[in-house]
Amino acid sequence: MRVESPGERPSGRSSEVAERALDVLLAFPDSQDGELGVTQIAGMLGLEKSRVHRFLTALVNKGLVVRNPNNHRYALGPRTLALAQAALRQMDVVDVALPYLEQLRDASGETAGLAMRVGNSRVHLVQRESHNELRHRFDIGAPLPLIAGSFGKVLLAASDLPGDELLVGEQGEALRKELDEVRRCGFAESYGERVPGTHSLAAPVRRSGHAAVAIGVSGPATRFTEERGKTFIPKLLTAAAALSEVLTAH
Amino acid sequence: MRVESPGERPSGRSSEVAERALDVLLAFPDSQDGELGVTQIAGMLGLEKSRVHRFLTALVNKGLVVRNPNNHRYALGPRTLALAQAALRQMDVVDVALPYLEQLRDASGETAGLAMRVGNSRVHLVQRESHNELRHRFDIGAPLPLIAGSFGKVLLAASDLPGDELLVGEQGEALRKELDEVRRCGFAESYGERVPGTHSLAAPVRRSGHAAVAIGVSGPATRFTEERGKTFIPKLLTAAAALSEVLTAH
DNA sequence: TCTCTTGTTCCGGAGAGTAGAATAACGATC
DNA sequence: GATCGTTATTCTACTCTCCGGAACAAGAGA
Questions:
Q1: pLDDT per residue as tens digits for the range B93-119
Q2: Does the distance separating the beta carbons of A62 and B19 come in below 8 Å?
Q3: What confidence category does residue A7 fall into, taking pLDDT thresholds of 50, 70 and 90?
Q4: Most buried among A21, A26, B27, B126, by the most CB within 10 A?
Q5: A71-CA/D30-C1' distance, Å
Q6: How confident is the model over B113-172, as pLDDT tens digits?
Q7: Residue A50 CA to nucleotide D21 C1', Å?
């Protein structure tokens, strides 16, 4: 029998036009300052100016993008908030996890976050940021690799589908061993694996029948030393276990 | 000289296809449970099934929508979170306002929120919900009327452009008078105006050169009585003044 | 004021989207 | 477990909208 296979392209034909229009929408989160001009977007995506302009008009009509009438540039509109709110309502995990994240943040003093496997990448859903001026912050909603960072490794280890296609070559072999270790210990650590100068710990959240979820803490290497990180482990595991229990008990 | 005119349709031609695809995306926040089927969406929007399916495929490819492989229905994906996060980053107001909202919530015990004028409607950006089991909650990101509710009236009164086209007929005349009153008092009240059984207060947040913003509190009529509401007014005005000051001082 | 850049509009050819039905997959009911 | 009703998905020829390129307008900066 065939289980859910994450990371597979949906079957069937898609709408080329719609995809390009969505590319325009999704160009905004990637931009430095959130305001973008037509030519700028056209350059980024390799599209014709007139095309981009037509798409922007559609996006503005739908309230997903707003036009700054002063400089004639465009930015994301408040309607996007409705989308995110509805998305979060779907993910029961988030509501339930918030107190645990806060607890973990306060216990460690570092940023605590929640991530989820989506296809062959991971996405951070929420975080409670460290109060320290120097802190790590996850890019919420952005697809990040599964094969690097503590969150990624936890999600990869927890999935029924190991994502074998990701574990290739010599590096894949090493990672495979590491995943076994993660499964044994019940948590993963990353010391500058994905973002240099950033250390993190993560543990799986168990819940049957749903996509894999991970909870963890992350901070700057200068403060989040290997030694200090060790002291976070029991707190992390407690939080993960409690969250798993709440979620499986409905 | 012509000032920014909110609520005007952007000029020029839009992409019909893109708009329909976005309709499909925006159908999700409106649905009861966030999961929708192809036929269901087609029915809601009056589109052909095959068309909806093609749009959904595009949305899935971009990560804005995910397909539940069990029941073959669709839901909003985590990529929408990236959009909202980027949108919020744009709106400096939100970050700054959070402590004031929390303060207002704790002082009143009711839900405190922040709304913004977008075209000829208002959109709630953030809120800090009352801790009470019975509470009011705003639909974040959803377009709501300007001509009803305390937030709407404040935004209408504060705008340079009065939105005259909204103030028509006998009702319009009464509202016009009320807006003058709002400008004089510096706040607006609503007793079940928009949502029956819900009372609210709101005050304008002043900041030059930006869209109008309002801060306010809202709660169930049984608790948020006219009498008790009066005691919130000074707290509200203090919060609004403080927030205005912070924002104009950069 | 002039120039350069950027946003916006226009239009006919071309190609992608559309409708509608056929098929496949699913789930409920007996 | 077989049948039926429902829903998702695929297919294809036609058609209508989108595309591109250039022309135009509007600002920004010098």
A1: 898 999 999 999 999 999 999 999 887
A2: yes
A3: very low
A4: A21
A5: 19
A6: 999 988 788 999 999 999 999 999 999 999 999 999 999 999 999 876 555 666 777 777
A7: 10
**CA R_g for chain B:** 20
Query: Tokens standing for B12?
Result: 């020029």
Cβ proximity of B187 and B145 under 8 Å: no
pTM to 2 decimal places: 0.83
* Residue to substitute from A79, A88, A89, A114, interface B, most B β-carbons within 10 A: A79
**Which residues of A are less than 8 Å from B142 in CB distance?**
82
Burial class, B241, CB count within 10 angstroms (exposed 0-12 / middle 13-18 / buried 19+):
middle
- Decide if B41 contacts B26 (C-beta within 8 A): no
Residues B6, A249: Cα–Cα separation, whole Å: 49
How far apart are alpha carbons A97 and A126 in whole angstroms?
9
Size of interface A-B (CB pairs under 8 A): 210
Task: Kindly state the average pLDDT of the residues A120-134.
Answer: 93
A7-13 — which CB contacts under 8 Å span 24+ positions? A7/A119, A7/A120, A7/A121, A7/A163, A8/A119, A9/B61, A10/B57, A10/B60, A10/B61, A10/B67, A12/B53, A12/B54, A12/B57, A13/B54, A13/B57
- B interface mutation test: which of A45, A81, A117 has the most B CBs within 10 A? A81
